Structures are given as C-alpha cells and as structure tokens.
C-alpha cells in the first residue's frame, strides 16, 4: 500500500493508489486483469473474415475469407457459410468488409469497463487459466490480486 500511495502519477502503481483513495473514479476505466472481448481476442489471434449466423453467433472463414461450403452453427445448428464465395442471405458479415476476397474483418473491442469479474467459482469454471490483454495466467492473477487487495483496503478504511 505504501508503494502505491507514494507512486508518481505516471507510474503503473498510480492505478492502485486511485483504487485505495477514490475507487469510484475507476468505474468507467479498463482495469488490468479484467476479461476482454472474446470475439476481438479471437479475431486478433486468427485474423480472417468473421460472420454471424441467423441467431447472431460469430463464426470464422479462413483462406480467402469468403464461404465455400454450407455448415451448421456450432452453437445453435442454423445453416452458416455459403457456396461459390456467396454468403447465405440470413448470415451477416461482421464489420461490413464487402464481397472482395482476402479482406480481414476488424472487430470493435466491446470489453466491459470497470470491475467486471464474476464470482470466483464461475470465473474458475469458465476459464481455469485466465489470460487478459496479452498477460499470461500468472500476471493476470497477480494483477487481479493487487487490484482486489487495494479495493478491499479501500472498503475497510471507509
């Protein structure tokens, strides 16, 4: 706590000082260790083209980025894809890239702001080795520990 309180404003520890002294100021911020938008994370890792099935579930088309076969959505079973590089009429191109081949979808990051962790049991069941924003599992858990400790100390002091 002393390091966070003494940290200069430009230091990464300044976030912990804010969590200690004025946690409400962090409500609209992206906090370290919080979950990120899974679709954005997948798009950054895989690139390519992304579409949505008729029920809104995302799916990926590799190679040229345009569909060449009919499949079923893994989540709901609806028809996805298309033939001869033509998308099914009720499927949607994410990011509206157009009909050209070899175009890459750019997904908008819709990560939640503020403190958005589920309870520990749900969090562990959903992902036993959490990573967030290019942090590995150990760094993610460490940043969550420090943030939670600062918020707990702030609550105890009030």
From TrEMBL:
Record key words, sorted = Cytoplasm, Immunity, Metal-binding, Zinc, Zinc-finger
Domain RZ-type, first and last residues per copy: 34-103
Q: Which GO terms describe its cellular component?
A: cytoplasm
Q: Which GO terms fall under molecular function for this chain's record?
A: ATP hydrolysis activity; ubiquitin-protein transferase activity; zinc ion binding
Its subcellular locations are: Cytoplasm
Q: Which InterPro entries match?
A: RNF213, ZF_RZ_dom
- Listed GO biological process terms: immune system process
Write down a Pfam family by its short name: ZnF_RZ-type
From the Swiss-Prot or TrEMBL record, give the protein name: RZ-type domain-containing protein
- Please name the source species: Phaeomonas parva
- What broad taxonomic lineage does this protein's source fall under? Eukaryota, Sar, Stramenopiles, Ochrophyta, Pinguiophyceae
